[in-house]
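so i finally got all the pieces together for this one. its two components total, 666 residues if u count the protein bits. some of the lines might not be protein, just check the labels. i wanna see the whole assembly predicted at once instead of chain by chain like last time, that was a mess tbh
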Amino acid sequence: MWEYTEKVKDHFLNPRNVGVIENADGIGEVGSLACGDALKLTFKLDENKRIQDAKFQTFGCASAIASSSALTEIIKDLTLQEAEKITNEDIAKYLGDLPKEKMHCSVLGRDALEQAIANYRGEAEKKVEGEIVCECFGVTDLEIERTIRENNLSTIEDVTDYVKAGGGCGNCHEKIQEIIDSMHGKEPRAKRKSERLTNIKKIKLIEETLDREVKPALKKDGGDIELIDVEGNIVLVKMRGTCATCTASQVTLKNYVETKLRELVTSELVVEEVQ
Amino acid sequence: MNVIYVDNNATTMVAPEVLDEMLPYFNEFYGNPSSMHTFGGNVGRKIREAREKVATILGAAPEEIVFNSCGTESDSTAIRAAVLSNPDKKHIITTRVEHPAVKNLGEYFAKNGFRVTFVPVDRKGRLDIDYLYENLTDDTAIVSIMWANNESGTIFPIEELSKTVKEREIVFHTDAVQTIGKIPIDVSKTEVDMLSLSGHKFHGPKGIGVLYIRKGTKFSPYIIGGHQESGRRGGTENVASIIGIGKACELAVEHLGKENTRVKKLRDKLETEILKRIPNTIINGDPENRLPNTTSIAFEYVEGESILLMMDEFGICASSGSACTSGSLEPSHVLRAMGVPFTAAHGSIRFSLSIYNTEEEIDFIIEKLSPIIERLREMSPFWDDKVIGNQ
C-alpha cells in the first residue's frame, strides 16, 4: 500500500484536463507501454503566448495520473519561458509530495513538458543525448546526471526511484555508481589494470568473468552463454536458453557481455557468436 | 464501507471456528507442552491432536509433520536440509515461477557455488516438463516445484513429477501453500519427500507453517535448539496457532467440495462476465488445470495499480502483477516467465476467492469493474491509438 497524500488521491480520482487538444500548439509524448508508464501532453497558447489550455493522457499508476493532472494545472497561464523552469520537484510539491519510489512519475511529467515545448518551437525531436546506461528502461548518462544534480541524489536506489535506471536487470548498477561518484567528486574506483596477459591467463580470466558476472545475470532471464573458443582477442561464444531465441541477444552480446569482458579482462576483446 | 475480499491467495480470514479453538490457549491453558505438570501436559495433548489433523488432510503420518513459523521457513528448511544432507551435490532445480521463498533462496545458492536450474513455463504457466527431466543429473541435490502457482493458479502435475524425479533418487520438495484446501492433496499418492504449508492461506492464523517430511528422508534442522518437534525444529511451540492450523485443516477437508463447486462457480462467473463485458481482456493461466478460486485477468492498455486503487474506492480488495504495486519497476516474475506481453502484464489483476464470498459480492465487482476500466482506458494514450487504429 502506497502512502499517497490526499492531493495525489484527489488528482488520481478526479483528474483535471484529461484528453487531447485538437490542433495543439505543442505535443509531448514520453514513456512506453513496456516501461509501465507513458504520458501524452498537449497545450494551446493564447494571443499573449501564454498556455491557455493543457490536456493529458496517461497510462500508468495512480501517481503517474496524478502527476500528469497536476502538471496541466501548474502550467496553465504560464509563458513558455516560465513553464520551462518547472522541475519534477515542483510537480511533487504541488501534490504534497510523492512516495520516494514514485518520483519517476514526476520526472515523466517534466520530460513531457520539455518535449511539448520543443515541439512547439519546431526543434527537431530531441535526440537521445548521451550514452545509454540502463538498457531496460533506455536511460542515458546525461539524464541520470541531470536528475542527480537537480534532486541531489546520492545512491543507486535514488536514481532508480527518479528515472527508473537500474530498476530492471541491475546490470548497470556499477555504471550508475560511477556517475554518482564522479558527480560527488569521488575518484572512480580503480579498474583492474591489464597487466601483460598470457593466452592462458586471458582465457582463464574470460571464463571466470563469464561465470561470475555474465552467466548469473543472463540466467535471471532464463538465458545462458557458453564459451566456445578464444582466437587472439576474439571471444567466440554460443547463446543458450532464452538468449538463443531472443531478438535482443545481439544487443546483450555487444553491450553487456563485451563491455564486461573488456572492463574485467582486457579492452581489446571482441565478442562474436558462433552459429 | 463493506470490504469485498477477493485476495485470498495473499491471505485469508481466520475462520471463526478456528479462532474459537485458539483463544483459550492464550490466557487460560497457557502451559508449556514440554512441562511435567498436568497443566502443561494437557496442552501437549492438544498439539498431538492438531498434528493428527494436519497428517489426515495430507494423507501422512503424524510423526511426519513438523510445525514451524511460516511457509517460507518450511521452504527454506526443506531446501537447506536437502543441500546439507547431500554435501557432494551442487545442483538445485526449481522453476521460474516460484514464490520468492524458493526463488530468492535459489538465487542465493546460485551466488554461493551452486548451479541452479530454473525450469521455464509456457504462456499458460505450464511447466516445461521435458526441460526439467533433461536437467536431472547425479549432481542434483533437490528438485523444488510448487504444487500450484499463486498468481496464475496453474497447477503442476506433482504426482507425476515426483515419481520421475524419485526414480533418480533425488530429493523432491513441493511448496503446497496455495494448494491446500483448494484441491485434494494426498502425499501417499506421490513421491514427494517434503511439502510446505502455511496456516494463513487457508483460514488459519498467520505465523504458523508446516513442513511434511516423509519418513526416511535425510533431514537436518534449520533452527537448532530444544527437543521440540522431535528435534527437527527448536523453539517453544506456538501453541494457539498449532491448534488453529489443526482446526483449519479439519475445516478444509469439510469445505473442499464447496471450493470446487460453489467457489469455482463464482470464479467462473466473475471471469466470464468480465471477459464478456470488457474488450481486450485476457486470462493469464491454464483454464484446464487451475486452482478453483483463482483468476488472473489482464486488462490491456491500463495499469494495474490504478485499477486496484479505483476498486479500493468500492472496498474491493484484489492484487496485481503490475510493476507499480510491488515497488519494483518490472511486472511480476511470474507473468514475465509466462511471456505475458507488456501491454497486458502491467494491467494484470488477480482475483482469488474463498468460501466466504457471496454471489452478491461477485455481481458487485462485475458491475463496478467495467466503468473503472473504461475510465482508465479513456485516460490512456494507447487506448486512443488502438481505437483509432481499429477504425
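Chain B has 14 helices and 13 strands.
The interface with chain A takes residues 96, 107, 110-111, 116, 118, 120, 301-306, 309-310, 313, 322-325, 327-331, 337, 342-343, 346, 378-384 of chain B (CB under 8 Å).
anyway lmk what u think
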